[in-house]
Amino acid sequence: MMKSKLIALFLLTSAGLFSQTIDRKKMDDYLNYIGNNNLGIGSISIFKDGKEVYSKSFGQENLPDKIYNKDTKYHVGSVTKMVTATLIFKLIEEGKLNLEDKLSDFFPELPNANIITIRNLLEHSSGLGSYVVKDGEVWVTDKATRKEIFHVIQKQGTSFKPDEKVAYSNTAYYLLTDILEKKYNLPYHKIVEREITAPLALKNFASTKSNPKNVFKPYHYENNHWSDMKDILPENVIGVGDIVSTSKDLNIFNENLFHNKILKKSSMEKMIPASGKGWGRGIALWDFDGITFYGHGGDTLGSHALLIYSPEQNLSIAYNTNAERINKESFVKNIVSLLYSKEFKWPEIK
């Protein structure tokens, strides 16, 4: 490919309008360019009107361990939180939990537990911190006990009172997972199996304690090649960032969720961000140059994911990578530009 094309604008006709027919060649050209130039490794799935209309894996041939197939799963990081929030709302629909129930009903020893609600935990307005970071570093790369994690949670305390502002909280979802397990009287992976994977017939979607096989390791790029790396231990982030999945199975979950086949419409209305807000309750707003999607992103140290849905176009996009050199938001923004016939620059080779 000519060097000038590396920074050329990727021009398509009818800029800004969603194309009802995906230009597979242009999409393939872009993803092949990413893979062939070691700019990333991953998988993308696109659903339109309930059906997968495009899917592609790219760059896997560049990995030192080339053992993979269509069922090889990725760590999806905090996309897990979208699943955890969904399960919480299932309990609410069944009358076993209420959005305004207090944290003190479950963890009276925690700071502000008498005024923090389930709603606060879901929407990151509790004031609780992020237990995965201790003394400025991610420390959960080795096995941590529940006691050790709760010690960090208590030591971090709260940085503001509930509803004063919004600050992303891994701690909140760790506690929500514990609440789920108490209410269901089941471990998280069994709840996911019973309420999500079995009803939706997902074969490549699992929480870590289901012992999923055929999962990509994370890699980082150095000295002109990909090297495997140490990552967050999934057992330390159950319900927070431990789920693995293929892009297709993520999209199947997304389709069923946004079409009210898992939760009632009234529950989904509570999950989706209100007008003018970036965060809802387990679902965030994503804006790509005025094109709105709803969903969740996920990041471990080495794996990244984005799962988003456009109600206007009935369009779902699932992106996974275990070897990232272009951040997931920029990568998916380019995919959206292709789908909506908008112009963008090809990523430069660095």
Describe the structure.
By secondary structure, this protein is of the alpha+beta class. The chain has a single domain (about 5-65, about 70-340), classed as DD-peptidase/beta-lactamase superfamily (Beta-lactamase, 3-Layer(aba) Sandwich). The protein contains 9 helices and 13 strands. The chain has helices at about 25-35, 80-95, 120-125, 145-155, 170-185, 190-200, 245-260, 265-270, 330-340, and strands at about 40-50, 50-60, 75, 135, 135-140, 205, 220, 225-230, 245, 285-290, 290-300, 305-310, 315-325. The strands form 4 sheets. Strands 2-1-13-12-11-10 form a 6-stranded antiparallel beta sheet, sandwiched between helices. The protein is globular. Mean pLDDT is about 90; it is low at about 1-15.
The ordered string of helix (H) and strand (E) elements is HEEEHHEEHHHEEEEHHEEEEH
CATH superfamily: DD-peptidase/beta-lactamase superfamily
- The CATH architecture designation is 3-Layer(aba) Sandwich
Give the strand line-up of the largest sheet: 2-1-13-12-11-10
The secondary-structure class comes to alpha+beta
The level 1 CATH classification is Alpha Beta
Main pleated-sheet profile: 6 strands, antiparallel
The tally of helices reads 9
Number of domains: 1
Gross morphology is globular
Number of strands: 13
End-to-end C-alpha gap: 15 Å
> Mean pLDDT, as a whole number?
92
Oligomer: single chain
> Helix proportion of residues, in percent?
25-40%
Under CATH, the topology is which? Answer: Beta-lactamase
Cα radius of gyration in angstroms = 20 Å
Strand content: 15-25%
Low-confidence runs (pLDDT<50, min 5 residues)? 1-17
